[in-house]
Design goal:
alpha+beta, 154 residues, 30% helix, eight-stranded antiparallel β-sheet
Length: 154
Amino acid sequence: MGAAMLAFFFIAWTLQADQMQRLRQELASCKENQGNNQAVAQLYSQIAAKDALPVPLQGTQLAPNARSVVFWNSAKKTAWLNSGALPTPPAGHQYQVWADVDGEMIPLGLIQPNDGDMHPIQYVPQAASLNITIEPLGGSKHPTVSKLMASGVI
């Protein structure tokens, strides 16, 4: 009888330990999902804010089907680029975003290939237009105008 009770408690303890391990894994998964959900909610609050102006960027002759949009928020001084339908850049290259400020092109950020659709970029209050070029990895100090892929007026 003592051996049977010992076996019963051992089996119960093993099942309890397995269940506890599954619960720990579920908790870790829930925490990860919560973090992802918070990041998405924060991003949504940036782009859906009433002050966020969607600036569509249309493809050029080089890439007539390229499409992108920047959510330009003057009140919060933030900008997010949805890379949308930009073609994959050639190997060793990436996209770079520029703002035209009084005829001078100011770099706003680099877009890493295959790095998701939404990208924070620098906000420049005096920008008249936004432009996307293909540049070597790491970016350029001046835009390669011959590789202008998309452009839009703010």
